[in-house]
Every structure is written in structure tokens, then in C-alpha cells.
Amino acid sequence: MGGRHIGMGLVDNDGRISYKKIVKLDETNRSEEGIFNCIREYVDEHAEKADSVGIGVPGIIRNNQIIYTANLPLQNVDVASYVGSRLPLYVGNDASCATIAEYHFIDKKMYSNYALVTIGTGIGAGIILNGNLYNGSTGAAGEVGHMVIDKDGIQCNCGRRGCYEKYGSISSLLKKTNTESLKEFFYLLDRNENIGKVFDEYLENVAEGLANIINLYDLEMLVIGGGIAWFSDKFIHTLKSKVASKILNRYTYDLNMRCAELGNDAGIIGASLLSQYEE
User: Fold this and answer.
1) Which side of the chain, N or C, has fewer Cβ within a 10 Å radius?
2) Which runs of E-coded beta strand occur in the chain?
3) What is the predicted pLDDT for the residue at 3?
4) What pLDDT is recorded for position 136?
5) What are the b/e assignments for 107-132, b being 16+ CB within 10 Å?
6) Please, what are the domains in the chain?
7) Dihedral Cα 169, 171, 172, 174, nearest 10 deg
8) Are 58 and 93 in contact (CB under 8 A)?
9) Running DSSP on this structure, what letter comes out for residue 120?
10) What are phi and psi of 99, to 5 degrees?
């Protein structure tokens, strides 16, 4: 699940997706019932081909229950009661799902301390520590979008002010530039000086949050995921330079940072791997 759409697919053991389906969320289906109707219909259609069901949700998850989401109308939801499948069910944080996929298929042999930050409607992160997915004591680890970078700043959906995702999310970027999509934004980027200035400020804000994460976990690799990863050639070198200038151990730390190779498919692929990474 994302803030604007639901992506669904049947995933094989090599991470290949078939029967992929994207459902846009709008006023007709952006409700608890509407969201799970979409998922249940898809699961029912493909259940005979599957071994399990994995669902990634942008929020706090505990024991296959959605405790809270800031950007979707889901709170205290028993997912199993909606999905109704006899298949084993695993529910995890969406950023953790993307992290699992990228780590499992791309980076597992090289790194043990690792994070993937998804930048979309909001911002979240999946954290791998010593080769294991870190969920925290209550399943709420990785909610980096709600660390405050300006205590008197913009009001956030979570109730606080100045949260990272109000400055570093795709939503905030599109809002500031009055653009409808990243495709439109990056088309205009090289053609509009003012948009270029806004983007530089945006990257400064993104870098602040990423530097905080690196300072906290002393990571071997930091990966940027979400829709913005498709446009990595437009910003990754500038962003890496900004982050490198902000981290505490900048004189001894070799910053490994790149954009996700699996792109938006990472969440779907990672959801299928939840059974292997759940504690």
C-alpha cells in the first residue's frame, strides 16, 4: 500500500512479478473497506498459485494488525479478518518490505548494517542491523518521516510540527512546485530556474534527515527508494555530496549511498519475503 495507490503482484522465488496490478486510491475507494476490497479480490483471484500473502502498509504494524497510519484511514485494523484467505498471512511496514527486497536480492552478500529510505507520499525506512530486520519493541521502528527537523514548522498529519516528511517527501516537492507528478517536475527542472532553486532546497532537507539516520545507525549502505529512485541520475550525486557534508564522522566515514535498483516494485517483492524476515 502507498499513500496514493495499491500495487499487487504474484512473486516467484527469484523476485519476478507476474499478474501485476496497480489500483489508484481516490475518493471512491480510499477507505478501510475500499482498500481491503481491492486486496481481497486480487488474493481470491490468485490464491491457488500462491504459498502465502504478504502486505506492506505505510504505518505501525503489530501481530498482523495495522495499529496506525498517518497517510491512510487505517487504525486498529485486523488484516486477517478482511483478507479472509486460508493462506499464511504476513503484514509488515511498507518501507521494511522495500528494504527486505533490495537487501535480499541486491546487497545481502556485501552488507550487514543497512537502511533503505522510501520517499513517496510520506517517508519511511527499513533498518537491517547485523543482517536482521529491526522492527523495534512494538513494531514501530523506521518511522523516520516523523522525526522533527523544524520544531516550529509545518503541521504534520501525525499531530506534530516540522516532521521530516513535510519537507522531504515527494508530496511536499510537488506541492511547492505546483506540479502533478515527478515526471512533470523533472521535465520542468531543466527549463525553469525557480523550480531548480526549490529542488536544491528540497535536497538540503532530504539530506538533513538522511544524515541523522546515518549518525544514528553508522550504516554500511543507505539506499533511496520510492518513486524518486527512477530519476536518480537527476539528483543522486548532489544529494550524496550534501549528506556527506552533514554526517558527524565525515572525515573517516566512506559514504555508500545509491538509489534502489528494484524501484517501485521493491515493496511488492519485499512483501512476498516477509515470511523469511519476520522475527
Assistant:
1) C
2) 5-11, 17-24, 53-57, 60-62, 65-68, 75-78, 89-93, 114-119, 123-129, 132-133, 221-225, 257-259
3) 81
4) 87
5) beeebeebbbbbbbbbbbbbbbeeee
6) 5-94+266-277 (3.30.420.40), 96-261 (3.30.420.40)
7) 120
8) yes
9) S
10) -65, -45
∠ Cα 153 58 110 (to 5°): 100
Write the CA distances from 228 to 11, 51, 89, 178, 208, integer angstroms. 23, 32, 30, 17, 17
Q: Quote the CA–CA distance of 47 and 99 in Å, as a whole number.
A: 25
For 151-167, the pLDDT digits (tens) are 999 999 889 999 999 99
pTM of the model: 0.85
In which element (H, E) is residue 194 found? helix 193-217
3-state class (DSSP) for residue 212: helix
C-alpha to C-alpha distance for 211 and 202, rounded to whole angstroms: 14
Determine how many CB atoms are found less than 10 A away from the CB of residue 38.
17
Q: What is the per-residue pLDDT for 202?
A: 97
Q: Which amino acid is at 120?
A: G
| Residues near 58 by beta carbon (within 8 Å), at least 6 away in sequence | 1, 2, 3, 69, 70, 71, 72, 93, 94, 95, 121, 122, 124
CA distance 26 to 237: 35
Inter-CA distances, 68 with 15, 71, 146, Å: 29, 9, 13
Residue 224 sits at φ, ψ, to 5 deg, of: -100, 125
H-run or E-run covering 98 = helix 94-102
Give the count of beta carbons closer than 10 Å to the beta carbon of residue 36: 22
Length of the chain: 279
User: What parts of the chain have a pLDDT lower than 70?
Assistant: 251-253, 278-279
